[in-house]
Amino acid sequence: MDALAELSRRGGIARTATLNAAGVSAHSLRRARERGDVRTIRRGWVALPDADPRVVGAIERGVILGCVTAAEHHGLWVPEVGALHVVAPRHAGRVVVPSRVVVHWSGPVVPRSPDTTVDDLVNSLAVVAQCQPFETALVIWESAMNKGLVDAARLRGLDLPAAARAVLEQARPYADSGLETIFLYRLRWMCLPMIPQVWIIDRPVDLLIGERLVVQIDGGTHVGPQRARDIAHDAQLVLRGYTVLRFGYEQVMERWSEVQAVIMEAVAQGKHRA
């Protein structure tokens, strides 16, 4: 079996024992190393030259990508990408990493295979719940649920840490983006009916507060034909008696107090009532 093809299939990095078990001969690996097509990154581990440097750096140090870094790797909505997070075995000794890297000594909820380079999604969510502020954790969990990668019934059957169970109690799969999750979480104190992704006329709106107050949230790429369609839809909503408030990413993430003040005034004027 071709060593490069098998390594590529496994994400560009793998244990030599796993490659051998898959049919890659020691001779094939040795020749690949000699040609510079493959390099040894740690005893028993090899990688392609273009393998993800974050994964390679983690394996070199005996850890794996975890927490918010793994969540991002799994395609989840992470509000802010900051320091690199890695996971070390709970009883591991001293781990030498750059100062900007956050190390979690974490026992897994789901057993980790010896071939793991990026922590399992469920394990990542559990660590996120213990590491991140509740709102950030909720955003990431709801992103996973909305994408259909996990569901509440499956998670309830696992031995989750207390922080993860607290997030699970509030997480719902309905928010179509992290911004919608943030809206719902930050406005929960108003004790008003708030439903994300309600279908009105011919398409869903981001959030319906009460019966008539529509909130539309524009992401960072909300431009061009999509924006034109949304503006036209807003006009149809207004003609049917709805009040439409539209906010951008920067407003929600950087100027929340202004956003909340507008919503509070709209509610005070009864714009949420039929």
TrEMBL record:
Organism in which the protein naturally occurs: Microbacterium galbinum
What positions belong to coiled-coil segments? none
Residue intervals of the AbiEi antitoxin N-terminal domain: 4-47
Q: Which InterPro entries does this entry report, sorted A to Z?
A: AbiEi_N, DUF559
What is the name attached to this protein's record?
A: DUF559 domain-containing protein
Q: Where is the DUF559 domain?
A: 210-267
Q: Which domain of life is it from?
A: Bacteria
